[in-house]
Write a structure and sequence with these properties.
about 50 residues; mainly alpha; about 0% strand
Length: about 50
C-alpha cells in the first residue's frame, strides 16, 4: 500500500514519505468505517485508492 503507482521507480525520499502518508490516511479512513474496505491502490496512478 505504501508504493504509489504515480511515482513508480522513484527513490526520492519525498515520494516515499508521501506514499507512506497516503497509505496511512487511507487505512485510517477505512478502519474508522467512513469507507468500505478493503481499499487497494489504483494501479494507473490516476487515483489514490479504490
Amino acid at each position: 500500500m505504501a508504493k504509489d503507482p504515480a511515482h513508480t521507480g522513484s527513490n526520492r525520499p519525498i515520494d516515499i514519505e508521501k506514499g507512506i502518508h497516503e497509505r496511512t490516511v487511507g487505512l485510517n479512513v477505512e478502519e474508522s468505517g467512513k469507507i468500505k474496505g478493503p481499499i487497494v491502490r489504483d494501479p494507473s496512478g490516476k487515483a489514490e485508492f479504490f
